[in-house]
Design brief:
globular, 5-stranded antiparallel beta sheet, alpha+beta, 5-stranded mixed beta sheet
């Protein structure tokens, strides 16, 4: 798993759903903290877990923020002022302190070292990567070079769009960092893991606390076979009362390429040409906005229509649009007619 982002509740839920046993080897591929509500709880829980079974953790870019704290990097102060959910805020709050009580990051650093040195030292000692006979496990990716070990530490935990760039190794590279939804274009919209044997990449990040409908992914390898699962915070379950079939209209608009050109507007959807992908998608009318003299999607949006059968259950994401509802089924996000539920 990777990119837990301070969500202790979902971490525990995923471990149960994956049926993790004491004899299993557990890999956590970076970004234990930041962005979620309980980074300190995740850190302490994982530290305890390391005493109970074989747990291997890599350093993620969000975990590396604590290294900047240890080195008293003043650039952290603007980050903390705009990031309400941070391990640093949680450490201060546990001691009845607030960021406003400190005049510099140096003071914050000294305070946190005084009271949370065990947790900070543990993070500081996390490795950037692991290598086995079959895998290279690293948070963001490896550089496309003959010897991947020459990858810079910055790229090890913050390399962007690794799945698009690829690599030269014969082993499968397991990464997190970049939400899998960012890589989708003409396939169904989802946040599930991407397991690409041809490119030898396993991409884990489900966009938890990054994407609106993000999730925490888990992949299990047993007897040479991969099994995937996920958990999320969705609770609005709806039962399908009328079937609907659409296996042809698929697509995803994701960050940072939201600009489109209108081609054909209908009652509920507009056929749009994507300016970067050079592909046309049916976009829900309510998810289009005219800004900066161009039509754009309002953030990430599914251009996928789902097939559902009577008696199935789905999770409701958006029932405020005309004619169609946005739902999630088996990790896939897409549109179905309102009559279905």
């Amino acid at each position: 798993m990777s990119d837990i982002h301070g969500d202790l509740d979902l971490l525990k839920k995923l471990l149960v759903k994956m049926n993790v046993r004491e004899q299993d080897i557990l890999m956590m591929n970076g970004d234990l903290c930041e962005k979620g509500p309980n980074s300190l709880g995740v850190i302490r829980y994982v530290m305890d877990l390391c005493h109970q079974q074989s747990v291997y953790i890599t350093l993620g870019n969000n975990d590396a923020i604590m290294l900047h704290l240890l080195h008293e990097n003043e650039k952290l102060m603007p980050y903390l002022q705009r990031q309400p959910f941070s391990l640093i805020h949680e450490m201060l709050a546990e001691k009845q302190q607030r960021l406003e009580n400190f005049s510099s990051i140096k003071e914050v650093s000294r305070f946190c070292k005084q009271h949370f040195l065990e947790e900070l030292d543990w993070l500081n000692n996390l490795p950037h990567a692991y290598e086995s006979e079959q895998f290279i496990i690293i948070h963001a990716g490896i550089e496309k070079r003959a010897d991947w070990r020459q990858t810079t530490l910055m790229n090890a935990y913050a390399l962007p769009s690794f799945y698009t760039e690829g690599h030269l190794e014969h082993k499968m590279v397991v990464v997190g960092h970049w939400p899998t939804n960012n890589y989708l274009r003409d396939e169904g919209s989802h946040h599930n893991p991407i397991i690409d044997h041809k490119q030898r990449i396993l991409s884990l990040d489900g966009g938890l606390h990054i994407k609106q409908y993000g999730q925490l992914n888990g992949v299990t390898l047993e007897n040479g076979i991969f099994h995937t699962t996920y958990v999320d915070h969705l609770t609005r379950v709806k039962q399908i009362i009328q079937p609907y079939a659409n296996n042809t209209d698929r697509g995803t608009i994701s960050w940072p390429h939201y600009a489109v050109e209108k081609k054909e507007e209908r009652t509920h959807f507009t056929l749009c040409s994507h300016r970067i992908h050079e592909t046309s998608y049916w976009i829900k009318n309510e998810y289009l906005v005219f800004e900066d003299e161009t039509w754009q999607c309002k953030g990430d949006v599914s251009a996928t229509f789902l097939t559902v059968r009577e008696g199935e259950t789905v999770y409701m994401l958006d029932d405020q649009c005309s004619g169609y509802d946005l739902v999630k089924k088996d990790g896939y996000i897409g549109w179905i007619p309102k009559a279905c539920t």
